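Methods — Computational structure assignment.
A single polypeptide chain was analysed. Its primary sequence is given first, followed by the predicted tertiary structure written as structure tokens.
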Amino acid sequence: MSDNQTLLFIGDSITDGARGRTSDPNHILGHGYVFQIAGKLGLEYGADAPRIVNRGVSGDRASDLYARWNEDAIAVRPDVVSILVGVNDAYYIVNGDPRGASDRFRRTYGHLLEETRTALPDARVVLLEPFALRTGGVVERWDAWSAKLAEYRLAVGELAREHGATFVPLQALFDDACLRAPESHWLWDGIHPTAAGHELLARQWLDVAAFRPRGRTGD
């Protein structure tokens, strides 16, 4: 049996990347940052490369992740769990949708991290900061979007410290990128990354998470 590590990426549509739901290797990782990370690690480490699993689901909030956490996270038995969530929690609240009647983001996020630490005590956890840019559909209610996501970014950073997780900052990265190209070059609708945006995200994950296969420390 292969001893290669398993990296699980889980979250909303940004992670989903329009992934296929079959075993077709051309589609199961989606067409976003997860695919790009898998390509880089597969090329760099060859036979030692990790197994990559994508369990992103478009539209998911933190509470939706929690509802499927057993089957889509714990049961996978990953060595690394990477989580990106928050934009849909913000969407429903900012737009007055009944699904955002109460803000469960931090509370639910904390619950799934607690369960992960209990069920997978040796797993490394990586938390990605939710982000948005002032373009596309978020412009009309930008002040509300900006305030809510700032609150969520603070919460994710605090949760990372509380649970010994790796924190991957992203908002400042995208803000700085806008000095080189307009917002829509990176996030076409203010939320979902373009090809360039996914590449930016993938590089940041690789830089901060600094994944190495077992026994590979300096290469």
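Note: Residues 6-209 form a domain with the Rossmann fold fold (CATH 3.40.50.1110).
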